[in-house]
């Protein structure tokens, strides 16, 4: 039998070792060979892991049933992990504790991709493009400000020789980037439950997924200078770093979009949709190929995957067989859900078990203060700038508009800045003498923000008087978000006593199509299968030329809606070239 | 950064090393830290792997389009793997070759479970239970005979000191078990394409999935005696081994069934189906929990997983939300498809690259002769016995029946005995001085059978005059096996020019329901969502008592149909207790 036990999941070494502890109780007269014994340990380890995941998911269901919102499954997962961590910590065999680490590779290659891919795929594209300006401002400028401010706070603090920590500026910026990635998981789950206003929802969702990608690229850019000469940064270096950052970000974005567009074209010009099983597998493989290709050419796989997901959903989705549409959507969702829970269990465990951590209470408190300050300085000034810009543009056309982001939204954006697992995974990549202290800080800060901000978000929504229970004008395109009642009639889940609402970022279907389907269930097959973007809604009235569309880009479009120019271009020029042309019965891709 | 690179998929070490070879061409001025470099290698490795998978799947689609059946994607995958293997072999860096092995753990914990689970889940239950007697006879007695015969052939041959091999009896039986696991993948894909008669299809499918499980248990039972005293077996040991085998097999089966039944009850008595995302994740986790639990208590995880899949589909499936039904089905299918292709790529690669193999041409030829003889002695005598038994039972009731298994079926059963990846994975677990030679033999024999038998199956069907193009009376329960045509009308894929037919083992829906749904698409929502077993078909006419149902078990049931007693018991007593009671509007689980 192979002597090396480097099989996949077995990297969850803590669980494997936990398994060994469990084994000491079991029958000792078994003289199985070494590999068999190891397999046996890992079975128990994985079994316990699965039980923890099931516990977290099932408790989350119970909480939803009982309408308890203060505690979220994220927090439950962390506590479940901490509980197991405590057992390991208290168990007599100390060597166990040495081998528990947050495995950087494991996280980035196995756990994170499904979450990012699902985010891109489930993005509510209409709302996203409508608010693209706001989202990009927060994602780019916001993350940048946050990383720099937090970095400066930490750097300046460590000039005071109180904690014995003396971190370099590059280290400070790295930690700043690490703690600037806000977590989309917890906050959105709560927003979903409360049916928060779509605009706020979209801005927070868009920002949180984009800023993960941006924080990763920032961190990696900073790390490139970590080894050079003790982490000093000249002004020249700074510009170089910004150039590198932009190159990596937009290069990766381009890779993802090209892969998505090629897929749409491939599906249009072949008949793979006739063999949905193969088609589904190909879509999954293509998404992962973009991820690994980008990593291979030293770009950011995460950014590529995000934009590949968005492009796939925006174009290729309409060329897929209905079965593949459902398969890919459900597959990505399930994988993302399991990954998310696993990450938080892992976080909790890591916090209590890992020995390679050095807790500096003062430094942690400074970091907590730092992230609040950084978030404050990112959210409020940028919101003011956005409000000013929108009002300025409206005035130039002789209109008067309300604040794009009223104070309540700004406060909520601030509150929604809880930090997530991406930060912890990035922190695992820190090197040098200060790494244990920095890692511990990041870990504690992340867990604290998830528990404190996550636990109080629901209350905050009330305090700020943000409109909740908004009946979405756009419903999910998923006809299986319906339930059978006793009498055989159907109701959308959002109508149930449970208060559950289908995820809001599911659909790219124009309003009319959805409403018709919602009302007329018997007809849902034909509309379900013909599901595709209809001609642009009559708000613009007439088709415009491409040059005008591009002119609109700079003048801000014909309305307050920032994405209008793109949608126009998309409907008139891009989609006709990429999508199956079913209505006209022509084109090479017609069945 | 962590210095150890034991992340998940990176066990595919061959690809990682391939990546290193590719790296030597890339920019050498990059002085990234060690872990980053490793991640970079593994990205290329995984990218190449994904490309290979995409190549195999896409070529398979092309072949289906062109209606070329002699070459199957399995064979393509093997050749794709061999091609890459050849490149590695010819590349100057020899250390690469040392690190390529078929990773036993990786296969059994990551690649095999999805295939087995999907097999159980997609099993055509009505046909399966109708032919359960025949299937169990072949699976148990057939695999047993095959393992013993092949073991004896190899053992006797190695008494002649020609090859320098001197294997023990336990080793011989182990190899026998290894090469008795027939492969369900290739043969069934071809059968699906040709729409072979359902009875033959069901028997071959049922045998091939059960005998994987039985071969694994046989192998493991034999291995328990490998270390004891140089592999000698006394008669007492033999009985003990048989007892152990039966204990493990039925114990594992029971675990799987209990997990499945508990799940059905859990879904019935909670409202998890209102939160389909959580529900889907729970089902996936539950299936894997049964696998790891069984492995943990030293039973066979594969057997548990198979029966857990069958039980989940048979009971729990009807208590799930429609969305979870689709999610689990599609998820298992995609995972199984990817795993299958990956396994065959891996096989091809292994054949050319692995150094820890010792090819003994004579021994391989003897093994090929041996598997043919073993399969012959398993198939034909057992078929005669089954034919005799069915005729005898019919005569006792004064009826005269045709052969249960006519000669053409027997010949096809013989031909369908190609060996698969389970054998190779088991062979990786062989130890001792003879292991390299035995492993090489198993690998070559498996690849040969897949290419030869797999490639000629289509021709064999013609020669034997087996009825193909049979329009199934039971269609898939999957309403997305339909395609949109230009005019917006729908047709089942089985009617297309492509000749593709939806998989046959998809449905447990009674005939009337399916046909109605097929005809009346507008109504498919109500029938689709109410999908559940209707009251037992009127063939039996009246409900019978449980005691009579059990009496029928021993008398053989009221018809030639061996599973009738079980179906009766199931419909009258088990299902009412396990399934949601929607028609009567009562019971604690009603919505």
From TrEMBL, chains A, B:
The chain crosses the membrane at residues 40-63, 75-92, 104-123, 135-157, 169-193, 239-265, 299-318, 330-349, 361-386, 407-431, 437-458. Its main location: membrane. It is a multi-pass membrane protein. Residues 56-462 form the Cation/H+ exchanger transmembrane domain. Residues 514-523 have a biased composition (Basic and acidic residues). GO terms for cellular component: early endosome; fungal-type vacuole membrane; late endosome; trans-Golgi network. Keywords: Antiport, Ion transport, Membrane, Sodium, Sodium transport, Transmembrane, Transmembrane helix, Transport. The keyword Transport applies. Gene3D superfamilies: 6.10.140.1330. GO terms for biological process: vacuolar acidification. It comes from the Eukaryota. One of its GO terms (molecular function) is sodium:proton antiporter activity. Pfam families: Na_H_Exchanger (PF00999). It is found in: Membrane. Residues 502-561 are annotated as: Disordered. InterPro entries: Cation/H_exchanger_CPA1, Cation/H_exchanger_TM, NaH_exchanger. Belongs to the monovalent cation:proton antiporter 1 (CPA1) transporter (TC 2.A.36) family. This is Sodium/hydrogen exchanger. It comes from Aspergillus oryzae (strain ATCC 42149 / RIB 40) (Yellow koji mold).
């Amino acid at each position: 039998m192979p002597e090396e036990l480097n099989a996949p999941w077995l990297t969850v070494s803590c669980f494997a070792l936990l398994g060994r502890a469990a084994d000491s109780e079991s029958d000792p007269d078994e003289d199985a060979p070494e590999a068999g014994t190891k397999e046996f340990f890992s079975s128990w380890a994985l079994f316990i892991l699965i039980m923890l995941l099931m516990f977290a998911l099932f408790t989350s269901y119970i909480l939803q049933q009982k309408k308890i919102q203060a505690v979220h499954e994220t927090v439950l997962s962390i506590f479940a992990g901490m509980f197991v961590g405590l057992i390991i910590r208290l168990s007599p065999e100390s060597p166990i504790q040495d081998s528990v680490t947050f495995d950087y590779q494991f996280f980035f290659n196995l756990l994170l991709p499904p979450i990012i891919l699902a985010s891109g795929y489930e993005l509510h594209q209409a709302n996203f493009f409508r608010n693209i300006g706001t989202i990009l401002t927060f994602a780019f400028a916001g993350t940048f400000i946050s990383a720099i401010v937090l970095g400066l706070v930490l750097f300046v603090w460590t000039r005071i020789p109180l904690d014995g920590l003396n971190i370099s500026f590059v280290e400070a910026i790295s930690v700043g980037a690490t703690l600037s990635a806000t977590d989309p998981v917890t906050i959105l789950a709560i927003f979903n439950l409360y049916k928060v206003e779509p605009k706020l929802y979209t801005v927070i969702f868009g920002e949180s997924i984009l800023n993960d990608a941006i924080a990763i690229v920032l961190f990696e850019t900073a790390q490139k200078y970590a080894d050079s000469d003790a982490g000093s940064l000249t002004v020249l270096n700074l510009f170089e770093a910004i150039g590198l950052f932009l190159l990596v970000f937009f290069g990766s974005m381009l890779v993802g979009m090209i892969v998505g567009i090629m897929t749409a074209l491939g599906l249009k010009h072949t008949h793979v949709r006739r063999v949905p099983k193969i088609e589904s597998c190909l879509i999954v493989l293509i998404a992962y190929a973009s991820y690994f290709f980008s990593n291979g050419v030293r770009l950011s796989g995460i950014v590529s995957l995000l934009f590949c997901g968005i492009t796939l959903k925006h174009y290729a989705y309409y060329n897929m067989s209905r079965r593949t549409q459902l398969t890919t959507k459900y597959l990505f969702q399930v994988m993302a859900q399991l990954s998310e829970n696993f990450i938080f269990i892992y976080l909790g465990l890591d916090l209590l078990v890992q020995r390679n951590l050095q807790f500096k209470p003062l430094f942690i408190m400074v970091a907590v203060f730092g992230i609040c300050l950084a978030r404050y300085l990112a959210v409020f000034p940028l919101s003011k700038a956005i409000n000013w810009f929108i009002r300025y543009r409206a005035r130039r056309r002789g209109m008067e508009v309300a604040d794009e982001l009223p104070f309540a939204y700004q406060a909520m954006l601030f509150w929604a800045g809880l930090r997530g697992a991406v930060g912890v995974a990035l922190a695992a990549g820190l090197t040098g003498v200060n790494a244990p202290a920095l890692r511990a800080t990041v870990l504690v800060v992340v867990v604290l923000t998830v528990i404190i901000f996550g636990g109080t978000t629901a209350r905050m929504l009330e305090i700020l008087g943000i409109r909740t229970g908004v009946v979405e004008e756009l419903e999910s395109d998923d006809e299986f978000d319906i339930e059978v009642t006793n009498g055989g009639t159907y109701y959308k889940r959002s109508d149930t006593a449970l208060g559950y609402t289908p995820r809001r970022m599911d659909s790219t279907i124009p309003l009319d199509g959805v409403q018709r389907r919602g009302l007329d269930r018997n007809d849902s097959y034909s509309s379900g299968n013909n599901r595709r973007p209809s001609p642009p809604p009559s708000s613009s009235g007439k088709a415009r030329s491409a040059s005008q569309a591009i002119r609109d880009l700079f003048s801000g479009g014909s309305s307050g809606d920032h994405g209008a120019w793109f949608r126009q271009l998309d409907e008139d020029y891009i989609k006709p070239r990429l999508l199956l042309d079913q209505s006209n019965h022509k084109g090479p891709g017609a069945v």
